[in-house]
Structure formats: structure tokens, C-alpha cells
Amino acid sequence: MDTTLEISPRNLGLILLALFCPRCFWMLMRMRFHGPFDHGGGALFTYMEQIERAQVDHHLETTGRLPKEFSPFCDIRARAEFPKHWSKFRYQHKSGVILYGVPDDIFTLADGSSLVVIDYKTAINKGEDDPFLPIYNSQVVGYCDIAENGLDLGKVKKAGLIYWEVQRTGVIEDPSDHYERGKVWVPFVPKPLEFDIDYAFLDPMLKEAKKLWKSDSAPAGREGCKDCKKVDALFALGTMAEASELIKDQRAIELHGNIPEVVNSVNKRIYDRRRARTSALLELQDGNNGFNFAEGGMVANWKYFGDEV
Question: Does residue 186 sit in the same domain as residue 230?
């Protein structure tokens, strides 16, 4: 089994969060960053990204540049060609870790070779007050690293986010002004945010991720971590369920242990339970779990936006 750590820059950025928990991160790495009850959100953000991309295309095609509202990214000229799937947009970092993911857009500047890496966020630009800004920073810088140093697509000169802020207050305060001909329209305002392109920024996170990846056992959790409490409760429920099944099996043997069919049935149930757990672990370790990694895979993706859209 290949034990090389593969991780998206976005998930790598979890290490920078104020509430980072080594134990939770250790578990998430081994579950490919998909929790046991992880369900993706609706198609809303996919639709929004398509709309946002169409708006950018419109301006580039009609005027050859973006309006002043998109500063400091007004000087992009055209969309660059790049692999648009995580299995292709990847490379092995000098640390040995494989970085993968898909940026929302990569553009060229006027010189035709320099690149601008952009990620769209349908959310409020809170600047430094955004608790998830370190994740976004890691995500974008990681994409830049893959594009420039991994795939040799060109020199990345600029990178950052284009937030699309929903103007919900105006709609709530004056809904009649946003309803016309049977349709509700909601304005979105672009609010860009540029990041410094410093690839050394990734090194401490990669070092920490590798250390946790190589650990055979989970480290201690962060004191007060609510997710750790939920995991402990889940383990306790699993232990209770297993104990209940074992009691049923034991009673069956005590009552009908002289009947070969009953003994065989009990042994088969025990074998099936153990095999199911072993198979689940092997699928996670081998990566053959059928999950789509294209969205970055964070358990908490949905909640990042839930209170802002």
C-alpha cells in the first residue's frame, strides 16, 4: 500500500485554524477528509460559480479587462489552459507530500505568460476577521505552487479570492424592489482579496501534516474540542452496539449451542461484522471509496458559507 500523503491545499490549511485539533486532523487524514456522515451541500454554489465565471468572461470578451471593482485583478486578459480535475492538477512537493486540487480559474496577464490564480467565494469578504481566511490562503497559495512549480504552467504573478457578496439586506428591507415579472433578483457585489505568493508559507503545515500522517496512533486532542467529544460519543455508541450483538450471540449459543446450524449462524454474524469493519478501513486506506475529491473534501465545507448566503 502506498503510504505517501496526498492532501489538498485547502485541507492542509486546517492546521492554521485557531481551533485546530491534531487528533481530529489525524482522523480526517485517514478518512480522506470525508466524515462518516458527510453529505454534500446543494448545487447552489456550483450554479453561483458558473454565474460568476460567466460574468468574468463577459467583461473580458467585451472590453478585454475587468472593471475597477475587480481591482487588483483588473489587468487579467484571458483564461489560461490548465487541467481541470484533481487527478491531473497535482504534483509531489519537495516535502514528499502530493498536493492536489482544482483552482476555480487561472488567467494570463497582458504579457501572455504570467499567471493569476483565482478562487471564487460566494460569501462576505471579512478580510482578516474571517476565521477561515488561513484555509483560503493555504488553498490559493497551494494552487499557485502546483501551477508554477508542479505543472510548469508559467510564473504566477498574482493570486487571491474574488468574493461575491450577496446584498441580502436590501432584498429583505425592500422585497418589492427586487421582484419583477415573476422573478426575484438578488444583487451580488464582487469584492476581491489578494494574497502574497510565498511558497515557504506551506512548509510548516506540510511538516505538521507529515508528522501526524506518520503517527501510528491518534495524538491527544485539543482541550475542549467539541468534535473530539462527538467522536468519543460515536465510538461509545459503536461499542454499545457491538456489546449488544455479542450478548445476543452468547445467549443464542447458551440456548441452542447443541444445534450446529445455530452455531454456524452466530459465527457467520461475528465474521461478517469484523469483515465489514476491516473492509471499510481498507477502502479508506486504499482510496477506493468512490468519493469525488474535486471539491476539496472538507467535512465542514457547507458551514463555511451557511450563515452568509
Answer: no
Say yes or no: 36 and 62 in one domain. Answer: yes
Q: What own/partner pairs with CB < 8 Å and gap ≥ 24 does 39-46 have? A: 40/295, 40/301, 40/302, 41/301, 41/302, 44/122, 44/309, 45/122, 45/305
**Cα 171 to Cα 126, 133, 174, 178, 187, distances in angstroms:** 21, 27, 5, 6, 9
Extract the runs of DSSP E, i.e. beta strands, from the chain. Answer: 6-7, 78-79, 90-92, 98-100, 105-108, 115-121, 156-166, 179-180, 183-184, 188-194
Q: What is the DSSP string of 185-196?
A: ---EEEEEEE--
Q: What is the per-residue pLDDT across 149-162, written as a single tens digit (0 to 9) for each? A: 999 999 999 999 99
CATH number of the domain bearing residue 135:
3.90.320
Residue 1 lies in a domain: no
Mean pLDDT across the chain:
86
Helix, strand, coil proportions of the chain in percent (round to 5)? 50, 15, 35
The whole-model pTM stands at 0.81
Q: Are 143 and 9 in contact (CB under 8 A)?
A: yes
Compute the distance between CA of residue 260 and CA of residue 189 in angstroms, rounded to an integer: 72
